[in-house]
Amino acid sequence: MKEKTCFFTGHRILPKEEIPTLQKRLETEVEALILQGVYRFEAGGALGFDTLAAKTVLKWKKKYPFVRLILILPCKDQCKKWRQKDIETYLDIKQQADEVVYIAENYFDGCMMERNRRMVDDSGYCIYYQTKKWGGTAATLRYAASKALILIPLCLDNHPTSI
User: Fold this and answer.
1) How many domains does the chain have?
2) pTM (2 decimals)?
3) Closest Cα to residue 71, out of 96, 49, 95, 100?
């Protein structure tokens, strides 16, 4: 199943001016994978890149109904400190997802890392947006590289790829 599965990783904060370009690149890369036979897409449900990626998969599901969005969430209370608008978007994505998996009932130190490792272990591909060499995205990419996943960067010209 790994060869049919792609996950997403990226930053929670996205510069507003970069979102349209990032969205177009996501759409292009996701459709290219679908046309290669990848149909399972896993997202971690976080703000920023995860949300953009999940929305992209849901968009392509309209054209390719066999596509599946699986949310791998760190805990059931992930969004409890979020703004209401972000919670509404999160709940809408959850409702449209084909499957929702929780790593834990409640937040604990390490549940996000466990979620990220689960997505790496499930997948053969990773589409990512990384602008820093530290943090959760960087750690997830290092783990994905160690597992020989095919890594697909969505870095913009002003943010060179850095694993």
Assistant:
1) 1
2) 0.94
3) 100
Give me the CATH number covering residue 71.
3.40.50.450
pLDDT tens digits for 113-150?
Answer: 999 999 999 999 999 999 888 999 999 999 999 999 99
Examine residue 160 and state whether it is found in any structural domain, yes or no.
Answer: no
H/E run at residue 112: helix 111-122
**Which is it for strands 99-104 and 68-75: parallel, antiparallel or unpaired?**
parallel
Does residue 71 form part of some domain? yes
State both tokens at 40.
């399972």
Q: What burial letters (b/e) apply to 144-155, b meaning 16+ CB within 10 Å?
A: beeeebebbbbb
Residue 104 to residue 89: CA distance in whole angstroms? 21
CB-count burial class (<10 Å; 0-12, 13-18, 19+) for 101: middle
Domain residues for the domain of 108 are: 2-153
